[in-house]
Amino acid sequence: MKTSEKRNDVLQAVERILDSYLEMNNHRKTPERYAILKAVYSMGSHFTLDELGQKLAEDDRFPVSRATLYNTLNLFMELRLVIRHRFQGTTKYEACYAGDSHCHQICTVCGKVTEVKSPEITDAINQMHLKRFRKDGYTLYIYGICSTCQSVLTRRSNKLKNQK
Asked: What is the pLDDT of residues 35-46, one digit of tens each?
């Protein structure tokens, strides 16, 4: 299956989940909710509220208020279509329906977040037996220093040594 076909299948599935929820709870099916859902699932990685708003306004030509974004993302989190991460003082979101569980490398210097797939960790978590708990997925945060920041720190350290 091609990536674009898979993306369309995922988008149709999450739209059906949203449709069902809105109908069962007598909520309106607003164009804003569907535009935000589509934008979330087209982002491709972690995003902030501001980045999502900018995408909707500039790329999709569908500006929405910050309050609408915030409330809609809370609804999507309740439906388990979006997950919220708090990376070093920054809140980021990520589409999570049919997403693979994964690890995040977080640089403690620059804040860069990189996703890492680890079959060993996935296997270990899948083999865990938890009492009275159904696993849906996992997120693991690994903090450290990225290679770019490490290079800068090493150069600074060497420069200071040479000055003495």
From this structure: 999 999 999 889
User: Strands, E, within the chain: which ranges?
Assistant: 82-87, 90-95, 102-107, 113-116, 139-144
Question: Judging by DSSP bridges, how do beta strands 82-87 and 90-95 pair with one another?
Answer: antiparallel
> How many Cβ atoms are within 10 Å of 41's Cβ, its own excluded?
20
Question: Which two three-digit tokens encode residue 96?
Answer: 């999570």
159 vs 72, residue with greater confidence: 72
Name 45's Cβ contacts closer than 8 Å, sequence gap at least 6. 94, 115
- The pair phi, psi for residue 91, each rounded to 5°, is -95, 125
Answer whether 117's CB lies under 8 Å from 102's CB. Answer: yes
**Banded pLDDT at 3 (limits 50, 70, 90):** confident
Structure token pair of residue 5:
């076909």
Q: How big, in percent rounded to 5, are the helix, strand and coil portions of the chain?
A: 50, 20, 30
Structure pTM?
0.79
Contact partners, residue 142, CB within 8 Å, separation at least 6? 103, 104, 105, 106, 116
Which amino acid does the sequence have at 135? K
Look up residue 57 and give its two tokens. Answer: 């306004």
Work out the number of other CB atoms within 10 angstroms of the CB of residue 87. Answer: 16
